[in-house]
Amino acid sequence: MPIPAHLGRFLRSFDVAYIPLLQRSYELWRQAERKAGVELLTINGGLTLGTSQSGTFLGSVRSAEEWGLEHQILEVAETNRRFPTLTPGKDLLAVHDPNAGVLRPEVAVAAHLKLAGGWFSCCEVEAGCRPPACVSTCPALGALLSVRELAGAAGSWALIWRQVGDGGF
């Protein structure tokens, strides 16, 4: 199963006001990593491609220059040499952001819960259960757990939960 992720890029083709927020978020993710003892953010670099007059290209270059951010402008041949899986058209330039990275949100949530003294796992709870008579199957722990209290972060499928039972899960 793919690991969901969020991409962080410093070079922005739109509102550059986000750059200080992103810089601070990187500091805080690194702090959380040290405290939780787990990698949350992987810096792997990123590319923004566009024609020399496109808003995407010009905005990325502008944000890099305005904020003094490390970057490189790559011609097609250099993009092909360094990133052989890409085949940009002859009119496309690339702006390389060496500090772009990927954040794993589920791991980050689990790390923050751990730091807060909580516990996190992907568990399955019997449909229609009502505490204190619930049993949870937890494959990550290889155990059955008795559930006294339950908190859920259902995401976009929360409406399905509401339809399962009259107030139960």
SSE topology sketch:
Blueprint: E1 6-8, H1 18-36, E2 41-43, E3 46-51, H2 55-67, E4 72-74, H3 76-82, E5 92-97, E6 101-103, H4 105-115, E7 124-125, E8 134-138, E9 143-147, H5 158-164
Antiparallel strand pairs: 1-6, 2-6, 3-5, 4-5, 7-8, 8-9
Helix pairs in contact: 1-4
| Strand ordering within the main sheet | 1-6-2
Radius of gyration: 22 Å
CATH architecture of the largest domain: 2-Layer Sandwich
CATH topology of the largest domain: D-Amino Acid Oxidase, Chain A, domain 2
Oligomer: single chain
For the record, give the distance between the C-alpha atoms at the N and C termini, rounded to a whole number. Answer: 25 Å
Number of E-type strands: 9
Secondary structure category:
alpha+beta
CATH-assigned homologous superfamily of the largest domain = D-Amino Acid Oxidase, subunit A, domain 2
Q: Can you summarize this structure?
A:
The protein is an alpha+beta fold. Helices cover 34% and strands 21% of the residues. The protein is elongated.
Give a written overview of the molecule.
With 169 residues, the protein is α+β, with helices and mostly antiparallel strands. It has 2 domains: 6-106, D-Amino Acid Oxidase, subunit A, domain 2 (D-Amino Acid Oxidase, Chain A, domain 2), CATH 3.30.9; 121-169, no CATH class. The protein has helices at 18-36, 55-67, 76-82, 105-115, 158-164, and strands spanning 6-8, 41-43, 46-51, 72-74, 92-97, 101-103, 124-125, 134-138, 143-147. The strands form 3 sheets. It has a 3-stranded antiparallel sheet, with helices on one face.
